[in-house]
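Translate sequence into structure tokens.
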Amino acid sequence: MPMELKNIYKIYPNGYQAITDFNLTIEDKEFIVLVGPSGCGKSTTLRMIAGLEDITHGTFTIDGRVVNKLPPKDRGIAMVFQSYALYPTLTVYENMAFGLDLAGFDEDVIAARVQSTAKILGLSEYLDRLPRALSGGQRQRVALGRAIIRHAKIFLMDEPLSNLDARQRVTMRAELSRISREIGATTIYVTHDQIEAMTMASRIVCMDVGVIKQVGTPEELYFHPKNLFVAGFIGDPPMNFIRGKVDSGVFASDDGYYSVALPQPSLQGKGIVIGYRPEHAHLALPEGSDPADYLEMKGKIEVYEMLGDLQNVYLAVGEEKAIIKVAPEVELEIGNDLIYYVKKADFHFFDAETEEAIEE
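Result follows.
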């Protein structure tokens, strides 16, 4: 079901402004992920959509209808919380049926919906169990089932995977994406984990201090970040940065560690920040490449992490820090210098003052 949030503000009685001029149009059946650091306002935004928080200024519409003052129960929204919020003395069946029973549905209708929902979630064999007899992932699926069973058109999920271990989170990410496609609902999902955002979203809303920093597909935010915040937040490990100034076609880093020809007219006379992704570091120039197309860089190895398919290498580079990805067979030693090369075409450029991307 389509939704629109237009010029939304949230200001608390003590004067704290949690959300500033939030504008977002959500299409039917989209999977929207609100992502950002703790305290950025993503959960507050979700609660305003749910009707659990009042909107101070602005207009919120669902399917073209203004719902600012509509109670939560009348919005056609189902919400899945971080804490599961299951009734510990009720079985899986009873937990899933509770809302329908309360709404006065016939027992045969309730039974049919519970069975069909349990089948979608792989819970059919657990319907007579209590929540304490389930794993964290199974409990999260019961909480999801309780929302699905209502046949709501909109699902709101507030960090639903944060209580799961690493393996369960990977499994449930895939499950949630599959279920969302199957039921055809519009989903708004809140997380601080940018990997969840990248792997699940049809579009990401990246937020900081109550402001939208960028909206786009995972590919758009990763390959074309509009500002320093998004560039540094999206990506694991995050983008590396070098601060400096371009004068007469030459970029000099602030710490005097680098000097490189950058003749682009849009960069001249500016204080800029150069960004590059960890995977764009090469330990040797690719065969047949022109050395003039690359910046040679050197850093002192501080830490390295063997991850199986690659190694993350943490470097001290002048007065800056950097993280690069190298092959697992590369031999590394803490304290040694490491020379690597980054292609100039892989650089991202940002205005040092405004922190906005400089379009080439």
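Note: The mean pLDDT is 92.
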